[in-house]
Please model this.
Amino acid sequence: MSRRAGRARTQIPSALVFVFCLSAFAFPPPEGPRVDSLGPNLYAYISDNDSSANSTFLIGPKSILVVDTSIDHFEAEKLLREIRKISPLPVGYIVNTHYHPDHQGGNGIIGPDAAVISSPFTRERTIAVAEATSKPGAARPAGHEFMFRPATETFTDKLTIYLGDNPVEIIAAWPAHTLGDVYVYFPKQRAVATGDLYLTNSVPAMDQGSAAHWIQDLDQILALPADHFVPGHFEVGTRQTIQRFRDYMNDLNTQVVAFAKTGATEEEIRQKIQLPQYSDFRQYAKYEATFGDNAAAILKQIRSAK
Ligand SMILES: [Zn+2]
Model:
């Protein structure tokens, strides 16, 4: 994927390259994941592996709450090392934003005894994915096993947990990126952990879900008094970057709805959509996360709703 990003990069004047190389020599870029402080006791873990999701963790007086736990044993150990640099307290709560393994394959490492909270759909799908991936032939390399733990608690609208005097609001958002998304709002720290409802400067992957409802979720998230948005992948976003992601979703959805009304085929719609203002967004064909893939996913949602 780094090759892809390299190819997509626009031409950089050689003087700038020189300055960049010089500064890179003086300050070598940090290797590995990054932890950003978002406010009192709240941290974003920004994964250095695009295939493994970010996490958000809140240190309470007696225990820690972690939103999403990375993809597997190996990535979860990396996350746990960063948490342990900040606090020795037990992880009492895990929130899984949705069922995709890159967000919850580390549950068993991060919180073997933690309460695990998700939507009912995420719980069901996790049990199914765990079963499918434990079959002979589906095994992952040693040390990179999925460490699933399905939810011990589910909810259908909103659940508030208090860690000391810190409220944590877990809010239903489905259907959107999947049929079971939730996001997590930390009012005191003015921060939101969005899962894959938001990616910074990137086109999302779309599972079975609803782009139309997803846009409403993004409007609700933007209506919260918040300044920090921890995306499913890539760097922490601002109000401006999440607004732009919302506008991408809305522009794309509007175009696909209009073309669908004319009876256009998927291939025609892939050709016709015009999104030049988002040409700097990352696109990943291997995750079916390109403008065209998103258009095809939305068309499928529209046609299956009829
Ligand atoms: Zn996802």
